[in-house]
Amino acid sequence: MASWAARWGVFGGASLLCLIGCGGSSTGRSDPPQPVFDDGNVTSLVQNSRYFPLQPGSFTLALEFAEPRDLLVETRVSHFPSTIDGRAVTVSTSRSFDNGIIVEQRIEYFNQDSKGNVWIFGADVSQFIAGIPFGNAGSWRVGEDGAEPGLILAGAHQPLQTYVREVETKNRRIEVVSLESAVDSEIGRFENCLEFVETGFQTGPFTYFLAPDIGPVLIQDRDEVPRWQVLERTDDRNPVILPGDFVTGVTNTFFPLTTGQIYVYTGTTEFGVEDREVERLSTTSQIIGVTCRENRETRFVDGEKVSETLRFYAQDDDGTVWLFGEEVILFDDMGAGTPDEEASWVAGIGGAQPGIEVLASPAVGNSHRREFAVGVAEEIAIVTALDALVSTDAGTFLNCMELAVTDPLVSELQDPASGPEAVDRFHFYAPGAGLVEYTDSDGMNRFSLREIR
Q1: Three-class SS of residue 12?
Q2: Domains of the chain
Q3: Strand 162-167 versus strand 170-185 pairing type
Q4: What residues contact 55, with CB distance under 8 A and at least 6 apart?
Q5: What is the number of other CB atoms lying within 10 angstroms of the CB of residue 223?
């Protein structure tokens, strides 16, 4: 069970039942009506649910107490929506690890209706043995084999409220305990949590605590023993950058920076034949307390220098390579340079935040911000392949990582699977070499690695 939604017993086409007692309660108070799926009410991606916010770019690390060993569960919410049965859905990927080895992956699809009810539209599940895929038990999608949306969380809650659902003929009864519970966790104290008890699932009951604007933070069994708890939660709109978390060099296999090397790329654009020389400099800069390695890219069109861009990179101790800014200078026909303020940004200035060049352990479907300076640089990338083959003048590269890159300032975010027109560019990173090719999605403006010197 690799995600909170899975732990809550969502495993297939869900048909909802009427509220026990037709909306009444033992207190004589009327509960809000049982949410019923209405095809016409599914209106938005899940981003503003108070207790189940699936903010694109958010990351959650949780500990699941399981037998024979506890599991670490990583959950990432994609920046890119997908489509199921004609509806846009938010994509959340959870991966469970046993002692560092993946044992399960769940890609789940969510939406919410105009009343705030959150629904699940399917799950693509993969099981692993010794890190090798061997099955997909539990996979399902709305519209296939009669599967229907399943209720994850009602949009309105009040103490003693109950609602019921049936999933694969198993009833789940949810009773709200409080909207003011407090939870102490590894990442702090959460106030005003939604607390509810679920019965009818395996050996329940289980008690859930959901923090406002955070989501699930703790699950306990009947003896108040933790069964699942959050260890870390981050949001790439405001990443936590601690200088002590960064290392001296940049050694990620998909983006190694070896001082003194020059990567030369060649391509043809609407302006003519263009060469781009990227030099790994020995100089560094301090940006928001982090020592960043400098790279200088020089662009030549038909032999004439047109721009220089100084980029700042640093690698954290997990292996993720961060981009801390870009300073761009444009050159005129006389060779005079002028700073390009519209394209330049540096983390910590004007609200700009570091972006990610490459992840430490990329997986297909992972997405991240490459740059984040509002109105200046907002590119978002998603890993679309880890086995791409790329041939350039510098050689043939196997098992390349392919990133689909979209700039929300230019294009609307779409599911990359819907076609090349859904993204702006593709970047290809080769193990041990780094960036070897990048191209516009229509195949124009293709730049390939010509040589490394």
Answers
A1: coil
A2: 4-235 (2.40.360), 243-452 (2.40.360)
A3: antiparallel
A4: 47, 77, 235, 237
A5: 5
Q: What is the DSSP string of 304-372?
A: EEEEEEEEEEEEBTTS-EEEEEEEEEEE-TT--EEE-TTT-EETTSTT-B-EEEE-SS--TT-EEES-B
Strand, helix or coil for residue 122: strand
Averaged in consecutive runs of 10 residues, what is the pLDDT profile of the chain (453 residues)?
48 27 37 66 72 90 88 91 87 92 93 86 92 89 86 83 59 85 90 90 80 92 91 85 95 97 90 91 97 97 94 96 97 91 92 94 90 86 95 96 87 58 84 94 84 94
- To 5 degrees, how large is the angle CA 206–CA 210–CA 215? 125
Block residue for tokens 């037709």: 22
3-state secondary structure 388-421: EEEEECCEEEEEEEEEEEECCCCCCCCCHHHCHH
Phi/psi-derived region of residue 71, left when phi > 0, alpha when psi is between -120 and 50, beta in every other case: beta
- DSSP state, 8? T
Q: Which two tokens stand for residue 376?
A: 């200046």
| Closest to 251 measured CA to CA, from 400, 453, 434 | 434
β-pair type (132-135, 434-440): unpaired
Determine the Cα–Cα distance for residues 18 and 155; give it in Å rounded to an integer: 16
3 state SS of 168: coil
